[in-house]
Amino acid sequence: MPTIYGINPIKEFLKADPGSFEKIFVSRSRRGKEIEEINRLAEEAGVEMAVVEGRQLEKMVGHVVHQGVVGLLREFKYSSLDDIVANRRAEMAGDLVVLADEIVDPHNLGAIIRTAYLMGANGIVVPARRASTVTATVFKTSAGAVRYLPIARETNLAHVIEVLKKKGYWIYAAEAGAEKTLEEMEFKGSVALVVGSEGRGVRRLLREKADFLFSIPMIGRINSLNVSVATGIVTYKIFSSLRRRVG
Questions:
Q1: Most buried among 41, 52, 223, 231, by the most CB within 10 A?
Q2: Residue 247 above 60 pLDDT?
Q3: Mean pLDDT on 143-170
Q4: How far, in whole angstroms, is CA 168 from its chain's centroid?
Q5: Whole-model pTM?
């Protein structure tokens, strides 16, 4: 079963989705107001707490900064593509679905999920193979966003694109070297954004199925961005275009 560790991630999960926990383990030597708050939240939610020796926590998660608290999670339940399409955000005048193609680093996937949630996305689609699953690292890096944002795991992202097109989505792919830039893109209605793997970018078949290819303009001697950073830049542009204006 997956685990999550650290005071803030566990507090966030207890507030957002306490049913995700099987059990929470606290080091015998750990004290303080933060642990008291975790105890209170767990008691209110009916989540079992156990006090253990610190070495037991290390057996569970290894030599990481667990801050003396580890949560044992129930198996993560992926959503369907239909769930994602239906998850329209009230603050958004349009839809945004992010297709994360072969993201193998769980830190990057967690950061992408966190950013997509905060930038108004309906959900994330990841491939079933050659990509990170929702691991404990993804849980932690997403800062709890995996419990708010639907995530689908699909065998064929090319087929997902075809389905989204039939539902009225425009497909955009971020690709280094594309002639058009992000500054030239106009986002409206239903948008599907494809972001590529850390090493080779968006796969050729997915690029060919995209309605628009664009690059992010940059200056300097380095010609690429971390995929989670690039996703943040692009989704903010989409968010700025699609979010509802109040007043």
A1: 231
A2: no
A3: 94
A4: 24
A5: 0.80
Tell me the residue type at 198: E
pLDDT exceeds 90 at position 11: no
Cα 31–Cα 36–Cα 37 angle in degrees, nearest 5: 135
100/2: higher pLDDT: 100
* Side chain identity, residue 104: V
Identify the band that residue 1 occupies on the pLDDT scale cut at 50, 70 and 90: low
Q: What domains, with CATH codes, occur in the chain?
A: 3-73 (3.30.1330.30), 81-242 (3.40.1280.10)
Q: For strand 123-127 and strand 151-154, is the pairing parallel, antiparallel, or unpaired?
A: parallel
b/e sequence 152-184, b meaning 16+ C-beta within 10 Å: bbbeebeebbeebeeeebbbbbbbeebeeebee
- For 66-75, write each residue's pLDDT tens digit: 888 999 887 7
Exposure string of 118-140, with b = 16+ CB inside 10 Å and e = fewer, is bbbbbbbbbbeeebbebbbbbbb
Token output for 135: 């691991």
pLDDT in tens, 213-228: 999 998 988 878 889 9
Its sign, for the CA torsion 155, 124, 142, 226, is: positive
Mean residue pLDDT of the chain comes to 90
Q: Side-chain half-sphere of 90: how many Cα atoms within 13 Å?
A: 1
Dist CA 62 CA 71 (whole Å): 14
Structure token pair of residue 34: 């933060």
Q: In what order do the strands lie in the sheet with 151-154?
A: 151-154, 123-127, 95-100, 190-195, 169-174, 212-214
Amino acid sitting at position 222: I
